[in-house]
Amino acid sequence: MSRNLLNFDVTDLDVTVQEGVKLTWQGKEIDSGQMTIKLGAPGSAGVIDYDNGTVNVEFRVKIASPALDELFEILEDMGAERGVTAPFDAVIRSQGSVFGEDHSLRLAGKGEFSEHRLFNPAETTLDILAPTH
Amino acid sequence: MSSRSGAEVREALFNGQPVSWGFNPKEKRVVLTFPKALGGETYILCIAGYYTFVARPKEGQIPEILDALQRAACVIEQPSGSTA
């Protein structure tokens, strides 16, 4: 490993989205409640290039919420296929800058969803915006 | 994020120590759009929490924690003042 290149693993990710979102399912509005984003499939990792001041990282995440869990349980009880109730997984590929002064990171990224019958990956998008400062 | 300097954080990372960064919980950082079948709404949301990176040891390198354990084991096996 070069002294100016750091390969790393993402060993923890613990994110909550306090604001709920509204989903409409068969004409019924469902409030997601608080959502959580945690590490899902193994392999989250990245690299910091200190020469160029850049960071690239891939987060393999699982998105969950009480309402989603409840919805999946109801659908399972109704005999829904596995593809409908599979975990809501995504890969977030982020890139940005690393600042030398305090080693803060300015990351922005885009999520790519796993195949899912409810959350059609072609229509479900997740963007992580860069922090303003 | 800790109050350590950038150089200290970088050194910690290269030494194999975990380093975490937090999100500003008041800043809207996530744009989430659902498929039309689920309403098709787009939300811009705040996120709170943190993520942690740990340097991947290069091949043949003993991670610092294992190195420390090995040194500790040596101390236990060969205590100072031992007459063995």
Q: Which strands sit side by side, in order, in the main sheet of chain B?
A: 1-4
Task: Determine Rg of chain A (CA atoms, Å).
Answer: 18 Å
Q: How far is the N terminus from the C terminus of chain B?
A: 48 Å
- Principal-axis shape of chain A: elongated
Give the class of chain B from helix and strand content and strand pairing: alpha+beta
Structure write-up:
The complex is a heterodimer of chains A (133) and B (84). Chain A is mainly β and 133 residues long. Chain A contains two helices and nine strands, in the order ββββββααβββ. In chain A, strands 1, 4, 5, 6, 7, 8 and 9 form a seven-stranded antiparallel sheet that branches. The mean pLDDT of chain A is 88. Chain B is of the alpha+beta class and 84 residues long. Chain B is built from two helices and four strands. Chain B has a two-stranded antiparallel ribbon with strand order 1-4. In chain B, strand 2 and strand 3 form a beta hairpin. Chain B is elongated and about 60 Å long. The mean pLDDT of chain B is 81. Chains A and B meet through strand 1, strand 2, strand 5 and strand 9 of A and helix 1, strand 1, strand 2, strand 3 and strand 4 of B.
